[in-house]
Amino acid sequence: MLVVAARNVTQEPFGGDDGRIARGPGCVVALGSLCEMARIPELLASKRTLSFEFFPPKTPAANMTLGRTVAAIESLKPDFVSITYGAGGSDRHRTGDVVAWMLGETTWTPMPHLTCRGHTRDDVDSLLAGYRELGIENILALGGDPPAGGVEEAGDYLYALDLLEDVVAAGSFATGVAAHPEVHPRSPDRATDRRFLADKLRIADFALTQFFFDVEHWIRLVDELAELGVDKPVLPGIMPINNKAMVKRMAEMSGAALPGWLADRLDATDDADEVRRIGVDVATQLCSDLIDAGTPGLHLYALNRPESVVEICLNLGLTTG
Predict the structure, then answer these.
(1) Does the annotation mark 227 as catalytic?
(2) Which of 12, 36, 42, 53 is catalytic?
């Protein structure tokens, strides 16, 4: 039986009416700066990792949901968690707030996402200095998505590689980059996509993939990188389906194919609970296939909800207590 961590999550976890972390007595920044963070490359060298992805909440109600989710899955003992970054850098402060809160309220190692869109080098220097002060050891350096409406602030970076070089030059962080098993939607072709990814991985420590639904996509990606002389760990991103419309929209945006067999299963029902059950079943099988294929870890998109990731970990025997 899954043991749920004892934690008071009936109150807004970040403590502020505006959705920001309260920074009064017992400041989480001070607590976080005392924590010894794990470096993800060292974790990957020693074991197959389990990790989760969260996004920064934007409302007090969403803060409470995230707090309850963290409490519900804490006993799964993830090796690290990642916190996403808004399109065009729109959530830059929320990301940092969630990272700081997790440092103070959990034993987890949080890894912030950082995107190059709409940022100057001074912006990035400031963000990295703040993360360094917190004791953060890992950064996921990304190109990022344009903001809604397509209007974004001018910045100093054109590509994720430019940002990656600055993060690595800062000297304090282990770095991860994004990988698209089915090719980045803006890449001109597969060969170019893989060359760009290989260039990043010659500098970075590991890659974290966009979601996909067929293990062969991950296997082919790893093989293609090996042919280019790159053997850095490639962590697969797994997204449990909770909503039909959302997964179709995200697949179109990310360049991930929704296989016909999966689309047929989803189209056969309008029941939300059945859709979630299908999502758990599909993700469990994909995780099992990835383990059989030798994956260095599993990175599950929690989507700030505990039910699906808890069930998947139960199905795989990855629970404690």
Answers:
(1) no
(2) 53
Q: Which residues lie below 8 Å from residue 145, measured CB to CB, with a gap of 6+? A: 87, 88, 115, 117, 253
Boundaries of every domain in the chain:
38-316
pLDDT digits (tens, 9 = 90+) for 282-299: 999 999 999 999 999 999
Integer CA distances (angstroms), 4 to 54, 76, 77, 104, 128, in order:
18, 9, 11, 19, 34
* DSSP per-residue string spanning 107-133: S--EEEEEE-TT--HHHHHHHHHHHHH
Q: What is the pLDDT of residues 101-157, one digit of tens each?
A: 999 999 999 999 999 888 899 999 999 999 999 999 999 999 876 655 555 566 788
Helices 307-316, 272-292: axis angle to 10 degrees equals 40
Q: Which residues pair with 289 in a beta bridge?
A: none
Q: What is the pTM (predicted TM-score) of this model?
A: 0.86
Class of CATH domain 38-316:
alpha beta
User: In 38-67, which positions are buried (b, 16+ CB within 10 angstroms) versus exposed (e)?
Assistant: bebbebbeeebbbbbbbbbbeebebbbbbb
The predicted model gives 269-277 an average pLDDT of 96
Q: Is 178 left (phi over 0), alpha (psi -120 to 50) or beta?
A: beta
Tell me, what's the pLDDT at 319?
77
